[in-house]
Amino acid sequence: MARLRAKISLTLAVTLVTLLVPLAAQAHKVGIYAYLEDGQVRGEAYFAGGGKAINSPVEVNDASGQSLGTFTTDSEGKFSFPLPAGVTAPLKLVLKASQGHQTSYEMSAEELGVGSAGGGQQSSDANANATPANSAPQPTGGANLSPAELRQVVDQALKAQLAPLTAQVAKLAGEREVSVHDIAAGIGYIIGLMGLAAWFMSRRKRD
Amino acid sequence: MHISEGVLPAATLIAGAALAVGGISLGLRKMEQERLPQVALLAAAFFVASLVNLPAGPARVHLVLNGLLGLLLGWSAFPAIFVALALQALLFSFGGLTTLGISTFNMAFPALLAHWICGPWARGANNHLALAAGFAAGFLGVALSAILVALSLLTAGEDLLGAAQLILAAHLPVMLVEGLVTAAAVVFLRRVRPAMLAWDR
């Protein structure tokens, strides 16, 4: 009994040490994210912890299962392709890094701007009453902008401002770092399972 | 080493799961109550070892420790590695839940081989041979796992030689580090707690 107790306390001590050692270590996982910029889908493939997934194929399919082709990441893990007209959202990007690593990223209708394009059409319909027959966009002369033109200018400016932010949010959505909580939870589970097994074994012995 | 969800065909996953279930049940049957803390401790070590990263070319590789587990646990390496892999999949998103069976086999079978091949020398009277056996166990564990992973990927249509070369080359630093870690563990245990090594099953 004393020997068993010594073994268990040794186990707990070493467990605590192993718990503290890897705090600075990084995860081992591939990730991918993408965002829309000027009609181009741009993205990046990476290994969690900093490395880039270079020369890796990215397969792109739209919601109807139609392939948009396979694109390869460059030496910085980046890829881009023009967004063809008439795709059905969501777009699915599957990264096939080497050695059995695979992950995917979905671009929703909002991210692809399909939704906002529809919204833009709606608003121009609504403005059709106010400014009829305003088909050709006139050269903007000072403050003399129609509401539709103003909306367009603001829209473009906003998109340019938000592009880096969009990229960051997309990256965050695809990434999840290992936290100390995860490590502690895992070791807690192992100790719990050990207790469970010990309980079953002691019952078996007594019976 | 972790194979992601959706890479392997169903037949490979089912075969892997069947082999893993066999190994786990045998490992549980051969596990003695006195050894329970040791099995749990090594499962915890395997669980956190995957967080120790080394850069290797375009990818990153991590410690595996399956040679050490095999040497010290024998058949019980199967349940220990299964639990650790399941927790890695759930908490770290390493690998996937459907690939749990094939991954358990890929890691635990080389562990068992390391136990059978290197175990007698690691327990033997000769200190130098024991050191060499420890190094060989750590080195072989990773190398054989890399080959098994390459074989698994072969069933997914990746060309074997290319995948095997890539995985073996990427894991060469891990093999060396694991060899040293396992050799150090063997030398340490022979001095401090030889009972932990005297485990022939």
CATH class of the largest domain in chain A: Mainly Beta
**In one word, what is the shape of chain A?**
elongated
Helix count from the secondary structure assignment of chain B = 7
Percent helix of chain A, as a range, is 40-55%
* Rounded average pLDDT of chain B: 87
Plain-language structure description:
The complex is a heterodimer of chains A (207) and B (201). Chain A is built from five helices and seven strands, in the order αβββββββαααα. Chain A is an alpha+beta fold and 207 residues long. Chain A folds into two domains: 2-15 and 181-206, no CATH class; 30-123 and 147-177, Sandwich (Immunoglobulin-like). In chain A, the strands form two sheets. In chain A, strands 4-3-6-7 form a four-stranded antiparallel β-sheet. A three-stranded antiparallel β-sheet of chain A has the order 1-2-5, with helices on one face. The longest helix of chain A has 28 residues, at 147-174. Chain A is elongated, with a radius of gyration of 27 Å. Chain B is mainly alpha-helical and 201 residues long. Chain B has seven helices and two strands, in the order H-H-E-E-H-H-H-H-H. Chain B has helices at residues 10-29, 36-49, 66-73, 77-92, 100-123, 127-154, 160-192, and strands at 53-56, 59-62. In chain B, helix 3 packs across helix 6 (127-154), helix 4 packs across helix 5 (100-123) and helix 5 (100-123) packs antiparallel against helix 6. Chain B is globular, with a radius of gyration of 16 Å. The chains are: A alpha+beta (207), B mainly alpha (201).
